Amino acid sequence: MAAHYINTIAEGLKQYDNSLHSNQYYNDLAWKGLYKISDGETNSHILTDAWNTLTTTEQNRIKNTIKDEHTYGNKNCK
C-alpha cells in the first residue's frame, strides 16, 4: 500500500515547493510516514513491504534526505 502513495505524495510536495528540488528529493521525502507503521500494540514499528524491497543504499539515501530536511529545512544539504 505504501508504494501506491509515494508518487502521489511526492507530486504534491513538488507542487507545494514550486519544484525547487529534484524528483528524487520529493520521492525520498514521501517515504517519511510510509516506511514504518506502528504494530498497534506497543511502541514497536513494523517496516512496510514496500520499504523492504528497497536496497540498503536506497533506504539510507531516503533516511538521510528525511533527516536533513528535518534538521536543516528546505535546503539542499550534503
From TrEMBL:
Superkingdom of origin organism: Bacteria
The name this protein goes by in its record: Uncharacterized protein
Annotated organism of origin: Formosa algae
